[in-house]
Design brief:
signal; globular; four-stranded antiparallel sheet; 32% strand; alpha+beta; 403 residues; Pol/His_phosphatase_N; single chain; 19% helix; disordered N terminus
């Protein structure tokens, strides 16, 4: 073991030990599980985030997930043995290791490392309290990167050298996948070319990766919004936030992407069911609760409406620290290079907000609610005057209009 590795191990061991009380606050099934966990680094600690119970719906509980992380088993710096404990101490309820698969395992997973990732996930997994997952990130330098979860094996560029071959592999594996940091690689998944056979299994599109908002990624160089490109192509992905951690601070500090999942139970099966239902939201704020319905249909669902006034109800909270905080709800609709904004609604954290928006399937099939903080600017802006140039707090998963 090198001294560099020893420093990493010592630091994470101390972190895991000092975070014990926070683990209790974040773990469903304990006496303190009514509130969501928060990311606490060396800053003053907050006791709680929002309640895990929706004001709008019943039968599910909010958990916070980080589904995209790396270790020494690919191009990360950290010992994988410390990753799951670090994420649990950061207030996360669901965590995944997704090291890269490449060509000939160069800076990517080998078969033995894949087995080790599974062993580590199994050891960390506590059904009902903490869900630990093994996945992988298929990594093509031009086409893009795709995370895959819930498979018994992995594929790399030797076995799946194109988007079509990767989609065939995912379909045959029975797993689920998501588009990572969309727009970063030049060809953008063949510009999100649609494969109807994979529609149900491609469940995610990253909107927050590390501290970045991908709404307008590539805009300055003439590309369209990845959100537009993906959903306009026909994909029915939910929207996620991830840390994409390559160092040793899995789950830390505040401000990195997270995914809020509404689960019937915090188990591997419960997480899979929520992901397949697109019953989740993207955020980069720990402890946040977002639930939303459109004419009574929860985000991620289909609206059996071709045209008409749609009643939205949004539950938004982050606990005492954000009580009364003014926010904006931006109703995003399909556009060409950037999403159109059908409505901007004032909201206040800690309350529910109701509003009606006329929608028409002829204008496009999807609608997304973006939560923004008007006091801060989006570091990656789009068109002048676009509401999306305000700092993004969260994205609901889409609803899809159906005739």
């Amino acid at each position: 073991m090198t001294s560099h590795e020893h420093d990493h191990l010592s630091r994470r061991s101390l972190l895991a030990a000092s975070g014990g009380l926070l683990v209790l606050a974040a773990t469903p099934g304990t006496a303190h599980a009514a509130t969501t966990g928060v990311a606490v680094d060396n800053s003053p600690q907050r006791a709680t985030g929002a309640s895990r119970t929706s004001r709008l719906t019943q039968g599910t509980t909010l958990v916070h997930a980080d589904l995209h992380n790396h270790t020494l088993m690919s191009d990360g710096d950290g010992d994988p043995a410390n990753a799951f404990a670090s994420m649990r101490s950061a207030g996360l309820d669901v965590a995944a290791l997704t090291d890269h698969t490449t060509l000939f395992a160069i800076e990517g997973l080998s078969s033995s490392e894949w087995r080790r990732a599974g062993q580590l996930a199994d050891a960390a997994n506590v059904p009902g309290a903490y869900t630990a997952l093994r996945g992988f990130e298929w990594s093509h330098p031009l086409l893009g990167h795709v995370n895959v979860w819930y498979t018994g094996s992995f594929t790399d560029l030797g076995g799946s050298s194109s988007m079509g071959r990767l989609y065939d592999w995912i379909e045959g594996s029975g797993g689920i996948g998501g588009f990572n940091h969309p727009g970063r690689e030049l060809l953008r998944f063949n510009d999100f070319a649609y494969d109807a056979g994979l529609r149900d299994q491609m469940v995610g599109l990253e909107m927050f990766n590390r501290g970045d908002d991908y709404l307008f990624d590539g805009w300055s160089s003439g590309q369209s919004s990845p959100l537009n490109a993906c959903l306009n192509a026909g994909w029915r992905t939910g929207l996620t936030g991830v840390t994409d951690e390559h160092g040793t601070d899995w789950g830390f500090p505040e401000g990195k992407g997270r995914t809020g999942l509404w689960v019937a139970e915090n188990t591997r099966n419960g997480v899979l069911e929520a992901m397949r239902a697109r019953r989740f939201f993207a955020t980069r704020v720990s402890g946040l609760r977002l639930d939303a319905t459109a004419d009574g249909v929860r985000m991620g669902g289909s609206l059996p409406t071709a045209k008409g006034d749609i009643r939205f109800v949004v539950d938004l909270d982050r606990g005492p620290e954000w009580d009364g905080k003014p926010l904006k709800l931006q109703v995003l609709r399909p556009g060409s290079r950037a999403p159109q904004v059908a409505e901007v609604v004032d909201a206040v954290a800690g309350t529910t907000t109701e509003f009606t928006v006329p929608l028409d399937l002829a204008d496009g099939a999807w609608v997304v609610i973006r939560v923004a903080d008007p006091t801060q600017a989006n570091a990656s802006p789009g068109p002048a005057g676009h509401p999306g140039n305000e700092w993004g707090v969260a994205y609901s998963s889409p609803w899809w209009l159906t005739a």
